[in-house]
Amino acid sequence: MFKLCDKTGWTYSFHKTNIGSIMKISWSADGTMCAGASGNGSVIFGEVVDRQLNYENWEANLNDENKIQVTDLLNEIHEELEFKDRVINMSMCYEHLIVTTASQCYIFSTTSWNTPQIFDLKESISIIIQSVKYFCLVESTNGLMIYNYEGKLVSNPKIAVFYFAFLPQFVLPGATHPTLSVFTLGLVFAGLTFFVKGPVGLGAGLLSGWLRSRPRVLVWLYRFSGTVLVGLGLKLAFERRA
After folding, report:
1. How many CB atoms lie within 10 A of CB 72?
2. Sign of dihedral through CA atoms 34, 35, 38, 43?
3. DSSP 102
4. N or C: which terminal CB in the chain sees fewer CB atoms within 10 Å?
């Protein structure tokens, strides 16, 4: 038999199989699919669907791998949301429904279900946490990412995690104040970054202003870059034919 339970032991799904005893079960990284190997060499697959979210008078049901049924319980209005890929994770709070698939994140507003904000993801999302103005996504590659409800990335604290993982390697084991040493190294690193990238940013700003004040130069710059891109495209085309 194949049984799906939560951490408290409550059974959500129960299936009897005709392939013998299941010897081992493994879950996908996103926790939405599982595979079981039986004693006779067969492999069975299971997928978690029929998930439900509730927020105020709204109810969202994942009835299929890529379809969510949204219902306004007060006005008895139904909306069906369909996605290209299977739904990995979803969360509904603060007048927004957040849905993540294997490759994209969708931000729906309860006032308009037909025009979601969409942006691409590198990997599947394991955790979604919402607040009034922002929401947080947890991804295995980029770590913690904070977005607003317009789909714009507000913060990615991965650099802070890098500092705390990288800098302690340069602190002597017998240091009197190791925490102070780490923060000192961090300040030195930030200062060096400022002196290197500061002039680059200042120069880019001055160059941008100079180009905007000379439209003819900008036009020729666009023409030159366009010619280079066309030339690279032709080179690739002839290389593939050869």
Report:
1. 15
2. positive
3. S
4. C
Structure tokens at 19: 């392939």
The residue segments making up the domain with residue 109 are 51-156
pLDDT in tens, 156-212: 876 667 777 777 888 888 888 888 888 888 888 888 888 998 999 899 889 888 888
120 CB-side CA count, 13 A: 1
What mean pLDDT, rounded, does the chain reach?
Answer: 86
Q: Are 106 and 92 in contact (CB under 8 A)?
A: no
128 and 200: one domain?
no
Q: What is the pLDDT of residues 202-229, one digit of tens each?
A: 998 898 888 888 888 888 888 999 999 9
* Sign of the alpha-carbon torsion through 81, 84, 85, 90: negative
Rounded to 5 degrees, φ, ψ at 164 are -70, -20
Read off the amino acid at residue 62.
Answer: L
Residues 9 and 56 in one domain: no
**What is the total count of domains within the chain?**
3
Q: 57 and 43: one domain?
A: no
The answer on 130 and 82 residing in a single domain is yes
Domain check: are 128 and 188 in the same one?
Answer: no
Rounded (10°) CA dihedral 202, 203, 207, 209: 10
CA separation for the pair 87, 93 (Å, rounded): 18
Contact 46, 36 (CB under 8 A): yes
Torsion of CA 185, 189, 194, 197, to 10 degrees: 180
The identity of residue 9, as a single letter, is: G
Is residue 56 located within the same domain as residue 141? yes
